[in-house]
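Protocol step 4 of 5: obtain the predicted structure for the target chain.
Materials: sequence only (see below). No template structures provided, no constraints applied. The aim of this step is simply to have a reference model before the mutagenesis design in step 5. Sequence pasted as it appears in the construct record:
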Amino acid sequence: MSGVRASTLPNGMRVVTDTVDTVETVSVGVWIGAGTRHEPREINGVAHLLEHMAFKGTERRSAVDIAREVEDVGGQINAYTSREHTAYYAKVLHDDAPLALDILADILLHSSFDPEELTRERAVVLQEIGQAEDTPDDIIFDHFQMAAFPDQPLGRPVLGLPEVVEAMPRASIMTHMKQTYGGEAMVLSAAGRIEHERVVDMAGSLFEELQDQSNREFAPGAYAGGEYREDRELEQVHYILGFPAIGYHDDAFYAASVLSSLFGGGMSSRLFQEIRENRGLAYSIYSYMSFYADCGLFSIYAGTGRDEAAELTPALCSEICRLSSTLEESEVARARNQLKAATLMALESTSVRCEQMAQQTLIFDRQIPVDEQIARIDAVDIDAVAAIADKIFSGRPTIAALGPLDRLANYDSIASALAS
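Step 4 output (structure tokens):
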């Protein structure tokens, strides 16, 4: 039987599947509703370090065994940590789905956290943090997040601070996993050539010992705004200008998505055409939405030269201030079509189907049918885009800048220009 189906195991773990009979592969993974914003300050980075350690050996598999068993059958396995979720996932041929599920259950339930492996992996994560620091168009996003949400979990870096990661005890990692990886916080998702009942049966057996409850409390996001500046000898200025926005559950979710696409989502967007094509002020320029459970951010990233930085901010402020009053039906329609096309094209990937099902289950506690998504995108009109633009751009700005900054306007002048 094809299509999306869902079941809940006795321990609270939800199992969602999407049967696609026309492919030979299966994408399968476990998504946990716990990430960086669920960490105490003293162990910032634990969710990410935990994700790394899950692959470093279990009671019956070494780290090499985990990698080889997957790659021996031509499969792939990976993981990631975000501010609200952690994911472990694999893609294999359909006959090897039981192996992928067994490995996922093994690393999530029976990781050994070998002290020697922890020492090595801690060093690897510290190198990852160092690499991010050496990559300005990467680390600028962490600085921006910290300026927008200062002194709170939502503003802390996913990788953690070096001094915290270096001192993090093994017991803290194991305790955090036990506290946050409960069945009700986890979604097992599978898409491809699979049968729902078979996945449910395997999950019920493999995850039978999983505890049902978890502690995933988090502090509400308290947007503050402000700025972070760091003069550094670079060829470019890496710059982010952002505003407080909305969360996943807000009625204006789709209107905000259309706004971001229209304003800076592609080569036909206002920012690309005006800032790059007409003025030549930036090689890279785009806007993006960051949605969280209770809040969000609307952000504009630009990579510009030292000389162009002086003109960039006034140009951005001008585009922001005139946006809602100069919207055209044609560009709103174009942005809607871009979102609809992206939604439908994503269905061609079992990996994306798998991830979307898991995230929708964690965020909305249900699957949102594609027809419903398309209908809600189609319902976004010019008035809805103007309204959400006015709401977002009336907020206190956040600025993060890294590079040669002597020609970049100061915060007060930028805030003043946006308020005019």
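Step 4 remarks: The CA atoms of residues 90 and 100 lie 6 Å apart. The radius of gyration is 23 Å.
Proceed to step 5.
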